[in-house]
Design a protein that fits this description.
The chain is α/β, with parallel strands linked by helices. Helices cover 43% and strands 12% of the residues. It has two domains: 149 residues, 3-Layer(aba) Sandwich (Rossmann fold), CATH 3.40.50; 55 residues, no CATH class. It has ten helices and five strands; from the N terminus they run ααβαβαβαβααβααα. Helix 2 packs parallel to helix 3 and helix 8 packs across helix 9.
Amino acid sequence: METHSFADVVDGARRRAFVGRRTELAGYLAALTGRSVRRVLFVHGPGGIGKSTLLLEMRARARDAGRATLLLDGRELEPTPEAVTAVLPTESAGAGTVLLIDGYEQLAPVDGWLRRELIPSLPASGVVVLAGREPPAPAWRTDPGWREVVAVHPLGHLDDVDSAELLARAGVSAADRERLVRLGRGHRSPWRCSLTRRWPVRCRKPWPRCRI
């Protein structure tokens, strides 16, 4: 009997395409396996740098470890305690649960509530990952209690080796990979032009036009 779903197929393809982010994953896996007390992780960086891709890989690794996971997108939630609580049912907040929130900058109005009420109420065996465009608010880093359990990971560009590997896994030719690595310097925005085979196209800032 067929046991795989479309979600399994999609997740498998994503994982085969994933490269890099070794430092961030090392810190995450240390939290996941209980080797680190830093179990509230902030990942921040500009749009298009790969935060959402990293969170999907983190979710997959948590599932591999047998953990219950919940991935939320702050862009799809009203920034109120009621809205966040509504998508966090009691059974999903059990011991060992991994809570990942993407687009965390959209939840800035409830950052204080998350810090003072929601996250402290979760089991200490769980892991929380908050990914957004902005660094965490100062209170996360100046409070001596949170300093013990928070790790901050600024997400930068992929290096040239990982950039070339990512493009290779996407089926980009060797000649085009070299040009795209030089153009993108690890940023994904200009690469979308190659991966969609629409040249030239309009790309997101800071890449007003991409021509290969």
